[in-house]
Amino acid sequence: MSPDLDRLTRLLGGELTWLIERVRKRLERGETLDTSVTLTAATPAQRDAVHRLLGRRPRAGNTLTVSLPAVDGILRSSGASPAGLPAAIIALTGPITDRNERAAAVDAAWRRAFAPLAALVETRPELADWHTRLHANGLVRRLAGTPESAEPLLADLARVVAELPSAGEPLGTFAARTAHDAHALDDGRPLATLALGAARALAGLPESSSRETWAAVGVLRDDVSSTVLTFGFPGDPHTATGRALAAFRSAGQPVVLTLRQLVADPPRLTAIPVAICENPVVVTTAADRLGVACPPLVCTHGQPGAAVMHLLRALADAGAELRYHGDFDWGGIRIANVLFERLPVRPWRFDAATYRRVAAAHPGTALTGIPAVASWDPDLAPAMTELATKVEEESVLDSLIRDLPPYPGSL
After folding, report:
1. Which residues form the Conserved hypothetical protein CHP02679 N terminus domain (predicted)?
2. pTM > 0.70: yes or no
3. How many domains does the chain have?
4. For a Cys staple, 236 with which of 94, 243, 263, 268, CB 3.0–4.6 Å?
């Protein structure tokens, strides 16, 4: 027989609402009802309601202890709920879902959503750590919300990551081919956020801009506006970019390379010493004074962009010896920190001892701005703070040019 809702409401309503809530929570957690529940600081009305339900005399004190088996027996014997207390709670409050069963079902749904990535990682062990972090950090849950929403997102992610690294493909074209949406990998889109994490893992770039990250795995975003100024690279006859470098070097002229050229048609690089400067004036002066005798030189032109970082990383991978000089000001320190912290770069006349000498010999303008610690030389920032003099590369051009050894075979 079904519970008698009117009788149940009279028996368990009003001041016994707390009892109904306690029982429901136990049922939702899959806990037994073969126990008692206690209410501390009970009101006189709540105590009276329990005493009436159980048919016992009022007891002193503010604490109520109610035997759930006793309540179950009363509901069965009275006919208010022939199936007992659980059926009564359902009749009064609605269907009950076991929280443990629901949690297990949700976990199973998330496993199904992650299945395409799990299958991919089995064949791409280099992605294992990224996959583990993605499970642990909750990013997918924050972006997708539910496993049902995550399932198509992670299926797209698996297809995108499976195609990395690419071979110099524009980002929109790559997105259309792998995710069937040319804008799926635009900044801010959930798929782009997840895919960038995989790209950083593949490229070994824990910190980098999205443009730099995509370029590192052969996907080009705005591939011609990011450039790098170079001079003196020997080039090679095997690629168009390499032949262009060789031609410009033989003419003693600097050359600007685009990110597209470096990714889609990279020159062959070797383990050669490479000097890096911050300002283009160093490159033009080297071209004027040294011409074809100048060794390879790269200019960051301020904060290094994607093309600069891509070239320098390729040089480092080839075993090139990299050394850097920049402006002795706080902005110059921050620019240098990017290079020293992310690449195997050595200072080139860019330390505390050098600063003290050039600041005395070439007094510049007053040093202003917010100080920054030089990651490669802990004594540099204190020296700059003490002398408070800004020294730009233009002031030490002669020293820098003299440091550039003649390129082998140029004389």
Report:
1. 35-234
2. no
3. 3
4. 268
**Distance between CA atoms of 314 and 335, rounded to whole angstroms?**
19
* 329-370 pLDDT, tens digit each: 999 999 999 899 889 999 999 999 999 999 988 877 899 989
Rg (CA), the chain: 36
Instruction: Give the model's confidence band at 268: pLDDT under 50 very low, under 70 low, under 90 confident, else very high.
Output: very high
Cα separation, 229 vs 326, in Å, equals 15
How far, in Å, CA of 379 to CA of 362, rounded?
20
In angstroms, the CA 100 to CA 123 distance is 34
Q: Are residues 294 and 334 in the same domain?
A: yes
Residue 410 domain-assigned (yes or no):
no
Q: List CB contacts of 111: < 8 A, sequence separation 6 or more.
A: none
Distance between alpha carbon 229 and the CA centroid of its chain, in Å? 30
Nearest to 391 by CA among 342, 352, 341, 345: 352
Give residue for tokens 């992605």: 127
Whether residues 278 and 361 share a domain: the answer is yes
User: How big is the CA angle at 98 (ends 97 and 102), to the nearest 5 degrees?
Assistant: 85
**What tokens appear for 57 in the block?**
């005399």
What value does the mean pLDDT take over residues 186-199? 93
pLDDT digit string (tens) for 4-33?
Answer: 888 888 888 889 899 899 988 888 888 888
* Phi, psi values for residue 190, rounded to 5°: -55, -40
Q: Return the amino acid letter for 263.
A: V
CATH of the domain at 320: 3.40.1360
Cite the beta strand spans of 233-366 per DSSP E. 255-258, 273-277, 297-299, 321-324, 345-347
- As given in the structure block, the two tokens for residue 269 are 């690089």
